[in-house]
Design goal:
Layout: H1 7-17, E1 25-29, H2 35-44, E2 57-61, E3 72-75, H3 83-92, E4 98-103, H4 113-134, E5 135-146, H5 151-161, E6 162-168, E7 179-187
Parallel strand pairs: 1-2, 1-4, 2-3, 4-5
Antiparallel strand pairs: 5-7, 6-7
S-adenosylmethionine binds near residues 6, 31, 62, 79 and 123.
Length: about 190
């Protein structure tokens, strides 16, 4: 039983792209109420359910409270865009590194489509700073955005540091919503 229907979007994406392998370290940004983390715990084996497979790590972060989940570490009441949160992540992740960053983050929608779009894209930009601190070379980033004028700029920034960037619209995502996901794969550290 999933805590939220959003689980089906991640299942659909992961069935196709196999981002979440046993033993992987995953950061789940905007994790409340915890459905994506449930999927991640299961797939990376972070609860150790499959003794024959390597155990992974799942760290979930949200500004809201996230109810506890076996196999996940949660940073409730933490802002993903705040540097102190990055510091805590470095401590929780094995070797301070992650294979995958997931983000289903969304600000509270004001109803003004363009304003909400800009807010969410700005949050996505901060994921690039996070990636620079924790994402392993070759790692992946899956992030939700609302389509609009700045989507292209986000795609361009992602393309500078990932070998492959594609736009996804899962079947489980409402057809009439502006919701999309960027799947960025094969991370290379940015050149300074
Ligand atoms: N993927 C989640 C699941 O399956 O249970 C649902 C995520 S929900 C669509 C979006 C979440 O992003 C909300 O819980 C919200 O509190 C969180 N959020 C928004 N801004 C955030 C921020 N700056 N830092 C952390 N979480 C944030």
């Amino acid at each position: 039983n999933f805590r939220c229907r959003s689980a089906f979007k991640l299942l659909e994406i992961d069935d196709k792209f196999r981002l979440l392998q046993p033993g992987c370290s995953v950061v789940d940004c905007g994790a409340a109420p915890g459905a994506w983390s449930q999927v991640a715990v299961h797939r990376v084996n972070s609860a150790g359910t499959d003794p024959a497979a390597p155990p992974g790590t799942v760290v979930g972060i949200d500004v809201l409270h996230i109810p506890p989940l076996d196999g996940a570490h949660f940073l409730s009441c933490h802002d993903v865009t705040a540097p102190p949160t990055h510091a805590k992540l470095l401590e929780l992740l094995p070797g301070g590194q992650a294979h995958v960053i997931l983000s289903d983050m969304a600000p509270n929608a004001s109803g003004f489509r363009e304003m909400d779009h800009v807010k969410l894209i700005t949050m996505c930009f901060s994921l690039l700073d996070l990636a620079e601190k924790i994402l392993l070379p070759g790692g992946s980033l899956l992030c939700k955005y609302w389509d609009g004028i700045l989507a292209h700029e986000l795609q361009e920034k992602l393309s500078r540091v990932f070998n492959s960037v594609q736009t996804l619209k899962p079947n489980a995502s409402r057809k009439d919503s502006a919701e999309r996901y960027f799947l960025a794969r094969i991370y290379k550290k940015p050149e300074k």
